[in-house]
Sequence to fold (106 residues):
Amino acid sequence: MTDKPLPQPTPRTQPFWDALKAHRVDIQQCDDCQHWIFFPRLHCPRCFSHSLTWKTVSGEGELLTYLNTTLVSLEEDEIQVGMRVRPVFDDIVPGETTLLRYTAKR
Fold:
């Protein structure tokens, strides 16, 4: 358990939190211009379309800066811009709240 406030899903963000509980990363994609959208929104920030679909992605990526997330299972000197990362699903309240963390992809 964490001492930080837990997220409070809204109707717009509920699909994201439901996917995390299932240990998946789902984000929105615009049906009109194919722009990937994170954080959940009502419309595409690129073309303003309201036609958005939730899609499962790997969640893997490259660290471009120190993320607005928690990096786990890493020593401070292991964290480097350009490193490959993968998602870690942290079941804070099993069956209720799962948070997305990241660690090095080895």
